[in-house]
Structure formats: structure tokens, C-alpha cells
Specification:
heterodimer; A: about 170 residues; alpha/beta; Rossmann fold; seven-stranded mixed beta sheet; about 40% helix; globular; B: about 120 residues; six-stranded mixed beta sheet; 3 helices; 6 strands
């Protein structure tokens, strides 16, 4: 089963994703994508680690070049997050990598197809009406395109807000 | 389907609103008007309502038009007064269109959610 969870910052996406993985069978992997830039990032990583402690997740830290890693066919992967993955792929080279969206989307889908279960989270960045600079606009558009491709293929697509869920496609595992 | 009451399609940027409308209503390219170019009467579908409201314009949409509008209100209150006014105008127009529409759909990641 493949699930996409979309929501604002601190909406409860990651926590819900973790709960869902615990309901699913298979070997649980937490696929971390954040490449820490400062103390704030490190604190967030520490907090997420704490939340996962004792849940039996194997942690993979691979924030870009997803194809470089493999997971076994019985894997139940919590992928956190599409937002960070695209940011790493698009901006890590210094400039803007225009092919990042296409590549990251393709690699993400390929990994998701090889797992038994795949739960990924993405931030909702598209409803604030802001006029961003070209780089940010390009990023937001590519992120939307990745999510639309996932939404086409995945079993379940949900919005999370305040820790509550609304399903746009499919249903959550019991 | 055409000839009934107005249809309003809303959603965030790049969510696939127009693609969904094209599929759902079998729209042809010549039936779609982009409001970035100003309003012009006689089209079946109007996209980018936010471009119209940004310019402070309104339009006499026919009662059977398909109107596509971006959601722009879910962010921090803009610092710029003109942006704040745009947000207000846009929100108000979307509300009034939604009130008269026979169907309102919100598109997220290409997936439709029936609001009305």
C-alpha cells in the first residue's frame, strides 16, 4: 500500500505517517531526507528520532540521489519528506537544478514501487497566494508536479491538519 | 452539461485544476480563456480568476461558465497593502461565485473534492 500525506507545517503528518507504518506489516524503515543546515534542523531531527524511538524503525539517511539506496521487498518505508528531497535535489548544487523535479519524482516513484508499503509526507505550499522569486516558484511547481504523479499511482492521498485526516483518495489502513 | 449553472473549480497553485476541468467537461482549447489576458465574453471556461482580481477587475461571467480560481488566502497577511486588498477582493468574489454555482470542486494533487 502506498500513501501520500499532505499538510501544513506541524500539522501532524509525520506522526500520522509513523502511526500508519506501525499498522502495516513488513520491516519498518524511516527514510530521513533532511540535510541539517543549523541547530534548528538538528533539534528537529533529534525530536523526530525521539518520537520514533522504540518503534523498531531502521533509519536511512539519504536526502538526495535516492536511487543510490535500496530497501528489501518487504520494507514498510516512512519517507519524510518529499519537500526536503526536492529542496536538496534542486538547490544543493549552488544554483537551481531545473531537472531536479523530474529526477526526484521518478526516483521517489521507483523506490515506492519496490516496497511493500510506502508512506510519504509533503508540505502544502500552494495556497498562500504569494508571489515568490523564480527559484521558489519553480520549486513549488515542481513539488506540486511530484505530488500529482504520486497521487495518480498511490492507493491513498490524504490531507492532515491538526493531526486530523481527510482522505482525497482511497482509505487509511485499519 | 453546458447550459446549466455555473461551475467553480478552486485549488492551490499547480494542483491540476485546469487539467481536471478539461477532462471532466471535455473542454477544447478554443473554449478556454485565460484571464491573464483580460476578460473576453463568449468562452465556456475561464481560468486564472486571480489574475482578474489582482487587476481589481470583475467580469460578467455567464451563468453557465466554468470558472477556475486559485486559492490564495492561506498564508501570512501580506505586508503590502495592495496584496492585502487583492486577497480580500479575490476571496469575496470566490465566495459569491461559489454561492451561485451549481457545483464547486476543489482540486488537490489532481484529485477532485466536491464542496458543493
Amino acid at each position: 500500500m502506498r500513501i501520500l500525506l499532505i499538510g501544513g507545517s506541524k500539522s501532524g503528518k509525520s506522526r500520522l505517517a509513523q502511526e500508519l507504518c506501525l499498522r502495516l506489516d513488513g520491516t519498518r524503515y524511516y527514510w530521513a531526507t533532511m540535510e541539517p543546515a543549523d541547530g534548528e534542523d538538528r533539534a528537529r531531527i533529534a525530536r523526530h528520532r525521539e518520537e520514533r524511538a522504540g518503534c523498531g524503525f531502521i533509519t536511512i539517511e539519504q536526502g538526495r540521489h535516492l536511487a543510490a539506496r535500496t530497501v528489501p521487498p518487504d520494507a514498510a518505508v516512512l519517507f519524510d519528506s518529499v519537500t526536503a528531497l526536492l529542496s536538496n535535489e534542486m538547490f544543493s548544487s549552488g544554483g537551481i537544478d531545473q531537472s531536479a523535479g523530474e529526477r526526484a519524482g521518478k526516483e521517489l516513484l521507483e523506490i515506492s514501487r519496490r516496497c511493500r508499503h510506502f508512506v510519504c509526507v509533503c508540505d502544502d505550499l500552494w495556497r498562500d497566494g504569494m508571489d515568490y522569486d523564480d527559484a521558489t516558484r519553480y520549486y513549488c511547481r515542481a513539488l506540486a508536479q511530484i505530488c500529482r504523479r504520486c497521487a495518480e499511482e498511490f492507493d491513498t492521498v490524504c490531507e492532515v491538519t491538526g493531526g486530523l485526516v481527510r482522505c482525497w483518495k482511497g482509505a487509511l489502513p485499519e | 452539461m453546458w447550459g446549466e449553472k455555473m461551475i467553480l473549480i478552486i485549488g492551490g497553485a499547480w494542483q491540476g485544476k485546469l487539467s481536471w476541468a478539461i477532462k471532466e467537461y471535455g473542454l477544447q482549447p478554443e473554449e478556454i480563456w485565460d484571464l491573464e489576458q483580460g476578460y473576453r465574453a463568449g468562452y465556456r471556461c475561464y481560468t486564472h480568476l486571480e489574475a482578474l482580481t489582482r487587476r481589481g477587475e470583475t467580469a460578467p461571467f455567464s451563468q453557465d461558465a466554468i470558472v477556475i480560481a486559485r486559492e490564495i488566502g492561506s498564508g501570512v497577511v501580506p505586508l503590502d497593502a495592495a496584496d492585502r486588498l487583492w486577497r480580500e477582493r479575490h476571496g469575496a468574489l470566490v465566495q459569491s461565485l461559489a454561492a451561485q454555482a451549481q457545483r464547486v470542486v476543489r482540486v488537490v494533487c489532481g484529485l477532485p473534492e466536491e464542496l458543493k
